[in-house]
Amino acid sequence: MGLLSLGTPLPWAEAKQYSDHVRQNGIVQFLNIWNRVKSRRRDKLYWGDEIEYMVVHFDHDAQKVRLSLRASDVLERLQALEADALARGEAPEASWKPEFARYMLEATPGLPYGSHLDELAQIEANMRRRRQLGQAHLRPGEVLMSLTNFPMLGTDDFLRAAFEPLRPTPAAGIFQSFFVPDDAITGHARFPTLAKNIRERRTGKVAINVPIFHDTHTPRPWREPCPPSLAALDAARRAQALHTPLCELLPDALEDHIYMDAMCFGMGCSCLQVTFQACRIEEARKLYDHLAVLTPVFLALSAGTPVFRGHLADVDCRWNVISASVDDRTPCERGARHNADRRCDAAVGSGTRFKIAKSRYDSIDSYLGPGHPTDGSETPGCTELGSHYETDYYRDAYNDIELTYDPEIYQRLRDASVDELLAKHYAHLFIRDPLVVFRELLDQDNVKSSDHFENIQSTNWQTMRFKPPPATSSDIGWRVEFRSMEIQLTDFENAAFAVFLVLVTRMIVSFNVNLYLPLSQVDENLARAQRRDAVRQETFWFRRHILPKDGNTREHFAEMGIDEIINGTRAAQARKSRPESPHGTPSSLRPPTTATTDDEADVFPGLVPLVHTFLDAAQQVTPSTRRTLDRYLRFVSARAAGRLPTNAMWIRQQLLRHPDYRHDSVVTPTMAYDLCRAIHDQVEAGVDTLGGDVPELEPLVAQRIPGLQLRHPSPQP
Ligand code: ADP
Ligand code: MG
Ligand code: MG
Ligand code: MG
Ligand code: MG
């Protein structure tokens, strides 16, 4: 969540008067950092994940699950543990942070992991430990769960309260939601202010509509019933609402959609993020670009959200929901009554400067390109394993979506010698207003602080984030954050995805792979990734030739299934031509002993075979680490092949098969209780995944890609 400053937050009417002040000083702060660290080099790979949990309370007598609002109390004690360890001069086991909802906790490793590949084998144990530490501070009946979305969030009586049930307050307060009480927001001043100022800036509540899953007994068209909280409204408005088929007091609710009206529906979801430090800015830019292409692929693989507000959805992911949940654009910015001269009718868009295509929580809008060393050096300057960026694959044609940016900020950055692409990136982030402005922090020392810069930067919640070094620390370098993944139910799954991603970054830089895809196609992929069962049903745009020998010359973008992208053409085709029996792999599916190159047969190599090839070449891991990594790769590969279900598919199956289910898309409290219980029991039993065992042998992905060499054959450990 970036910086959590303390102070007096300004209400929107006041805060907005300081928008320019924050932007102007924020850019000065960025330039101070830039001038200090633009040619910083020889940083090492550091990386770390972020896991978000929910505290779920089980009422076994009533067979009901609710969200517990005690996460904030627990957080204080967990943070005290962390502080104690630091005071003793020890590395804490975990680092804890507040999250938007009072039922959420975020935990990262106590310290980031380093570049030695053997460290990859430690993360799973650390994730288990974090879960234990958090769980140890809970009360009987309370359980720490890593669910992307609590299935009953926003249904009647979904929050555990000491006395009376907590009720939403549609006519007053912060959310003014029909479904979510304000009690769900973490008390820290930042969070309620964020929610309130988004609503006020937007001039109305956020509107989230998710297509409903139509089952045999789901009415067609399906329409939102009027919510019980209408009772809080006056009698005339209520009577009017109850007499219309589509509840009229829900003007934003669409037919055949599950309607949600509060920031909590999105920011109250949990996700898995991974941050990487690059050896210098050029490598960070390279990783930002190539990983951006992978954000939809990892979203589809990690899909875990088939239920919203107690209804089965026709999507499997949270992304569009969270995007809409913090969409603070004014009606004008969203396109209403926006004149040709780019001016907006004052009545609907006070404060509007631009027409803006996306929410501030959305996919990236421009690639950064590699940049050029500003100190005139030609040598890479990174000796670490897999660090180099000699080949410039970037082309302007890949930046093919409209980029709205602030021309004055752009010019300011250009005048300070920031190159065009990076200047456009920040001038784009800076089209947004700061949402939470603290009175005490209006005047800052722009050399020592980056608070104004972070204010804008960390409320641009995009699929990737480009993180400059902080203003004050001398030992943190340029980092990129991968932000699209959904949290997984088990520690094994979360570790597998985090580790696979780290290995993919090493593979990209070591083999100098080219993943560039026009951004319009990346956006199309992000939309497809969220659809129901996308791993097995959808295709995704991808670059067909990604290896260095023709990665730059053969511009061929094709639609491929996730299986082919992850496991390679050979594995995917073999599987298609002869479905595997449940009892092992038929001999005809064994991989050829000597694989041919992709050049020879238009064969896409697959990310997992490339990672295997990288690991072979790196020769840097102990056999025990390698066994652990192979197991993660088999898991990712099996999920990509559809042999293991995503969490979303597994959850959906459990609900569809529940004896109480009436085939009407409705998830009852008992169904939710049984589901959460089944998840918790299996997680506690220590299973790797809920949908089946990780295949012990997956010969199809044990392929190696010939002819690839590490750029730095003698890595420094
Ligand atoms: P944010 O919420 O802003 O994304 P967090 O501090 O919550 O940031 O998490 C960032 C992640 O980055 C953590 O896993 C942390 O361990 C990791 N990390 C910390 N320092 C570095 C570094 N120098 N390089 C890479 N990762 C780091
Ligand atoms: Mg978080
Ligand atoms: Mg964080
Ligand atoms: Mg969050
Ligand atoms: Mg983060």
From TrEMBL:
Pathway given in the UniProt record: Sulfur metabolism; glutathione biosynthesis; glutathione from L-cysteine and L-glutamate: step 1/2
A molecular-function term among this protein's GO annotations: ATP binding
Example of a GO cellular component annotation carried by this entry: glutamate-cysteine ligase complex
Top-level taxon: Eukaryota
Annotated EC: 6.3.2.2
Enzyme class: ligase
Biological process annotations from GO: glutathione biosynthetic process
Annotated catalysed reactions: L-cysteine + L-glutamate + ATP = gamma-L-glutamyl-L-cysteine + ADP + phosphate + H(+)
Keywords: ATP-binding, Glutathione biosynthesis, Ligase, Nucleotide-binding
Signal peptide positions on this chain: none
A Pfam family that the UniProt record links to this protein: GCS
Residue ranges, annotated region (Disordered): 570-600
Family: Belongs to the glutamate--cysteine ligase type 3 family.
PANTHER family noted in UniProt: GLUTAMATE CYSTEINE LIGASE, GLUTAMATE--CYSTEINE LIGASE CATALYTIC SUBUNIT
UniProt name for this protein: Glutamate--cysteine ligase
UniProt organism field: Caulochytrium protostelioides
Lineage: Eukaryota, Fungi, Fungi incertae sedis, Chytridiomycota, Chytridiomycota incertae sedis
